[in-house]
Amino acid sequence: MRVLLVEDDEMIGRSLKQALEGAGWSADWVRDGELAQSALGDGGYTCVLLDLGLPRQDGTEVLRRARERGDATPVLVLTARDGLDDRIHSLDLGADDYLLKPFEFRELLARMRAVVRRRDGAAHSLIGGSTMQLDLTTREVLVDGVREALTAREFALLHALLERPGAILSREQLENRIYGWGEEVTSNAIDVLIHGMRRKLGAESIRNVRGLGWRVAA
Ligand code: CA
After folding, report:
1. Residue 28 buriedness (CB in 10 A; 0-12 / 13-18 / 19+)
2. How far apart are CA 16 and CA 216, in angstroms?
3. What sign has the CA pseudo-torsion 72, 83, 22, 139?
4. Residue 6 in contact with residue 33, Cβ under 8 Å?
5. Average pLDDT over residues 83-109
6. Distance from the CA of 203 to the center of ligand 1, in angstroms?
7. Distance, CA 163 to ligand 1 centroid (Å)?
8. pLDDT tens-digit profile of 1-42?
9. How far is the CA of 73 from the centre of ligand 1 (A)?
10. CA of residue 32 to ligand 1 center, whole Å
11. Is the pTM of this model over 0.85?
12. How far away, in angstroms, is 183 Cα from ligand 1 center?
């Protein structure tokens, strides 16, 4: 799963990026509002962590423009304790939740899971189709009710496919969801990943649609 981290404070940004990657997220970090705007335009993010006080373009402006474009990516606002007006304003603009700095990293992860779940339209933590589901809390896959552990990349791959069972995702779409900027992605990385998943979950678990991409059964 990919997260866009928008934070101009070097210390906070660096430690958050590191912690997020340690927790299995692929994190792209930008330090100003305009870069955030263009990163969001590229799409592929599961969630956005948005600081409000930013150089070049305010966080609330980034949010307002994203929602105006119809971008529904879940946004979790990271804000200072004294910024009540900003918090209210950002919720009105379409933020999904906010967290007061300083916060515990565990709470950040829990809130990220919660906003992603709500976007997935599920009150519980399971998404997917009739034969295969993904547990967003434990990061396990359930195949006919049997649980299997997943690596971070396997989880990101299945999360992309199981958000909309039956829909075909192209190689580029999958790469966008799994790998962050500057990560070396070999031309057959997706094939290798899917080959491993099929060995683990069954040959029919992820189907190839020739020339178009991959999908899971609806
Ligand atoms: Ca700031």
Report:
1. buried
2. 33
3. negative
4. yes
5. 92
6. 48
7. 32
8. 899 999 999 999 999 999 999 988 999 999 999 999 999 988
9. 21
10. 9
11. no
12. 26
Ligand 1 mean position, distance from CA 202 (Å): 47
Q: Report CA(141)–ligand 1 centroid distance (Å).
A: 37
Q: How many residues does the chain have?
A: 218
pLDDT tens by residue, 177-218 = 888 877 888 999 999 999 999 999 999 899 999 999 999 988
Find the 11 Cα to ligand 1 centroid distance in Å. 11
Q: How confident is the model at residue 91 (pLDDT cuts 50, 70, 90)?
A: very high
pLDDT value of position 131: 82
| CA–centroid distance, residue 110 to ligand 1 (Å) | 22
Distance 52 CA to ligand 1 centre (A): 6
CA of 21 to the centre of ligand 1 (A): 21
| E strand segments, the chain | 2-6, 26-30, 47-51, 75-80, 97-101, 126-128, 132-135, 140-143, 146-149, 207-209, 213-215
Gap from CA of 195 to ligand 1 centroid (Å): 43
* 114-164 residue pLDDT tens: 998 888 765 567 888 878 999 887 889 998 878 899 998 999 999 999 988
